[in-house]
């Protein structure tokens, strides 16, 4: 049978045959090598052709069918069901089996599968030791579990026993979030960040992505250009595209985003610490961004994802604190300062946007999710324990940051160009070599139990591979092991 | 100054002057009595004209400004900023101060403010006793708090201390929800509802509204007609309209929705117990709906919001259990069986729609919200305590149901035409008299501390006022008091 898939080229990249096989076929479909309508071999034929088991082929076909890349026609076989020729922005309405997806649904399906996936470096689980710089985690050993649990248990008693009856007539928490938590956040922002916001402007969200997506849905119409950083958090262009907008990537330099007179009314930016490069936007540039927004009547979304952890230097004022004309939406999150499973973030909105944002959120959650944890956090903040915990973690993370920075600079500066930063929970570098050399290096490190996060981005010098190393959850020994492995493989 | 608002007519309806004032102005704006661009009196002038305090007027102006009905032009005064003439479906892009809302955002703003609001009957807090049939609550006295808290504490210990580190490499929970919970739900649905679904088809959501809205976003395009029940849950047309669709209201009769050859590819329906009338859809009609879906290639969303509580008769199989061709999305929720603040629901999807649904959810929540409560519920179900609790609550709620039904039938059958039901947590009736008589009755009852929920809907006899009485959280004494008050006021 005349059927070729470039399976061999994938085996090195993925830990299991099944994954390699899946990606080989999927990429062939997406790239148009296997055009829409192509009949695929039966699982028996393909197993014989490729040397993998028939069970594996069936599993891969099932995955592709579930994702809508292929469809099984009863009694006739399996066919490619994805049109690579189709222009983006014109999603088909009939591409999910025969469920007619809306244009919005079609755009959802065009995005990559997962935001926080197991990552591009698949860890094969065989190395005796590991150093996982990719994991999305905090230092749980140092978390004040007892104090947190005390708040949790007290709040559980109050909430579960009294809810809907505390005032005898069903007082329900609004979609905007627990009132006490909104007040605590307002106080914290005033004290720690210089942001003067009333609790009514603060809406609690289930992690910052909810704030990003709701903002995009509210402000981005079909074809609207939206300015995003490159490299940047990939959730942002995803939210913009799904809303029907067109993300316009703007490169960052050593001082962060370069302000310009963009033809747009919406900008997503990470001034506190550019994601992922870690550079801090200068006050001068902050002022320029605000001038641009005032001039254009634009909105700036300030994604302040981890500026709590500053290792040295003075913090600059957030855009929101500098904004005298209510053009900034400030997004913050507790997922990096507390426990990753506690999905609490917040948006600080211009007063006139608070109601639209709340109505949009209420469409998905008329009553807030995870209210118990919101109340627990409010109590934890009110007792002063949150800021005590932050101060302690700042010291701990600063030590880890200094240690890992030094190790990476000492051992791997030939391979990576490290970007200096004053803050944050990861260290960023640009790969200095070729893509092929990088792929080989990455794969060898993964085999030795060492992995990290990566991004393909532009900076002022063009498209490059960037890597970043999360360290909060790692011990000194793990960081030492990880860097030693990388150095050994880089030198080999 | 020549400025009239019909404030007097509102004072009886609202508990505070401010609220009456707010609604009086807002309704005048919405109805076009105060057209877009009208200059409103200064707060000083309006206070003098109306006899309310200037502070109250300012507060009302602030609320209207925050919601975008009026805008304050610096140095010039307050102006109406809402165009009542504007055709629905053509939302303005410039109507929120000068923040340009997207068409989606514009549609969000066209919806009513809150889904679970304090309700149309405002309770004035002055009555010595109350009977609140409107409150959204369960019988917390009978909830097994100890058992639930034991699960909660055990799960908190496990989750918070091990997360991201249980397997050494940051295994993150998927947006689809806790795996153990999805398995428990699958088992429960098989056992209790006859629905054969694999855990992969089950996606945990933050209450059923999230499932409704994500489904509408995924399947409804601009101008698409979507069949909805009338009367019905008002969240559904809201989600449809926001997605750009056109809800087509279909009246229900004494057996529920009347099947027809609708020109549509999406139907939202409550077969288990029509909301809010409570009638159960016959097997014959269930089959007709499925035939329609097969014929049209349509999707049916089965909103199964409280069929767990069946007081007599045999349960009919859910549409999802009868569906041989994967055209049904089944939505269920734990908010009525557990604690209202625990916002956990689920959608059972056709396999090919599971991935689009998960990707859409991930756009808002790449990691699930309220994971601790998901894990607590999974443990609670796995230990058998959930079904034990359900059995116990069925007995308790059946007794309350029988008692309230009898009281209402005995005392208020002249005013309401009660709809018989075999299941559920509320009792529904149609008002027999005029709208004015109803408004007077409702307002007098509210003054005596008795309120309920209401809906304006169609049934086969035309547009009517429907009322429904939630009882789970009420004691025998409260129900007795409530019905006695209503009877006294109805007879006066």
Could you please describe the fold and organization of this structure?
Chains A, B: It comes from Paenibacillus konkukensis. Chains A, B: This is HTH-type transcriptional regulatory protein GabR. The structure is a homodimer of 492-residue chains. With 492 residues, chain A is of the alpha/beta class. Chain A has three domains: 8-110, Arc Repressor Mutant, subunit A, CATH 1.10.10.10; 131-141 and 388-491, Alpha-Beta Complex (Aspartate Aminotransferase, domain 1); 145-384, Type I PLP-dependent aspartate aminotransferase-like (Major domain) (Aspartate Aminotransferase, domain 2, 3-Layer(aba) Sandwich), CATH 3.40.640. Chain A is 41% helix and 16% strand. Chain A has helices at residues 8-11, 17-31, 43-50, 54-66, 103-110, 145-162, 179-193, 208-219, 235-242, 283-296, 319-322, 351-364, 371-382, 385-412, 435-447, 476-491, and strands at residues 39-40, 70-73, 77-80, 131-132, 202-205, 225-230, 246-253, 256-257, 266-269, 299-303, 328-333, 345-348, 416-418, 426-431, 450-451, 453-459, 462-470. A five-stranded mixed sheet of chain A has the order 5-12-11-10-9, with helices on both faces. In chain A, strands 13-14-17-16 form a four-stranded antiparallel sheet. Chain A has a three-stranded antiparallel sheet with strand order 1-3-2. The longest helix of chain A has 28 residues, at 385-412. The model of chain A is unreliable at 87-96, 117-124 and 164-170 (pLDDT under 50). Chains A and B meet through helix 5, helix 6, helix 8, helix 9 and helix 12 of A and helix 5, helix 6, helix 8, helix 9 and helix 12 of B.
């Amino acid at each position: 049978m005349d059927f070729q898939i470039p399976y061999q080229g994938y085996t090195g990249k993925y830990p299991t045959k099944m994954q390699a096989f899946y990606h080989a076929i999927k990429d062939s479909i997406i790239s148009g090598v296997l055009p829409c309508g192509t009949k695929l071999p039966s699982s028996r034929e393909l197993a014989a052709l490729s040397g993998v088991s028939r069970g594996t082929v069936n599993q891969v076909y099932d995955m592709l069918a579930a994702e809508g890349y292929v469809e099984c026609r009863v009694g006739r076989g399996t066919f490619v069901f994805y049109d690579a020729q189709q222009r983006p922005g014109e999603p088909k309405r009939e591409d999910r089996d025969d469920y007619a997806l809306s244009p919005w649904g079609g755009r959802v399906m065009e995005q990559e599968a997962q935001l926080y996936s197991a990552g591009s470096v698949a860890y094969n689980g065989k190395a005796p030791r590991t150093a996982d710089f990719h994991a999305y985690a905090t230092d749980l050993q140092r978390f004040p579990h007892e104090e947190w649990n005390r708040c949790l248990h007290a709040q559980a008693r109050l909430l579960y026993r009294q809810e809907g009856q505390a005032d005898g007539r069903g007082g329900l928490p609004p979609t905007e979030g627990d009132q006490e938590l909104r007040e605590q956040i307002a106080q914290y922002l005033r004290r720690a960040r210089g942001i003067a916001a009333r609790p009514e402007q603060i809406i609690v969200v289930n992690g910052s992505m909810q704030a990003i997506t709701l903002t995009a849905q509210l402000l981005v119409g079909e074809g609207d250009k939206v300015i995003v950083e490159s490299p940047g958090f990939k959730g942002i262009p995803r939210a913009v595209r799904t809303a029907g907008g067109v993300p316009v990537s703007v490169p960052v330099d050593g001082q962060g985003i370069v302000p310009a007179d963009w033809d747009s009314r919406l900008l997503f930016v990470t001034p506190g610490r550019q994601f992922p490069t870690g550079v801090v936007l200068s006050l001068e540039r902050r002022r320029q961004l605000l001038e641009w927004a005032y001039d254009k009547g634009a909105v700036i979304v300030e994604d302040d994802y981890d500026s709590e952890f500053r290792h040295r230097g003075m913090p600059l004022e957030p855009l929101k604190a500098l904004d005298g004309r209510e053009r900034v939406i400030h997004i913050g999150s507790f997922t990096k300062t507390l426990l990753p499973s506690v999905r609490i973030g917040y948006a600080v909105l211009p007063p006139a946007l608070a109601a639209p944002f709340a109505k949009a959120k209420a469409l998905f959650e008329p009553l807030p999710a995870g209210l118990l944890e919101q109340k627990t956090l409010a109590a934890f903040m009110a007792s002063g324990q949150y800021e005590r915990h932050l101060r302690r973690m700042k010291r701990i993370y600063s030590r880890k940051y200094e240690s890992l920075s030094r190790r990476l600079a000492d051992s791997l500066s030939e391979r990576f160009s490290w970007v200096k930063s004053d803050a944050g929970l990861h260290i960023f570098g640009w790969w200095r070599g070729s893509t092929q050399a990088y792929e080989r290096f990455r794969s060898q490190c993964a085999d030795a139990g060492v992995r990290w996060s990566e991004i393909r981005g532009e900076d002022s010098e063009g498209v490059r591979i960037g890597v970043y190393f999360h360290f909060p959850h790692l011990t000194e020994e793990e960081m030492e092991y990880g860097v030693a492995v990388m150095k050994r493989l880089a030198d080999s």
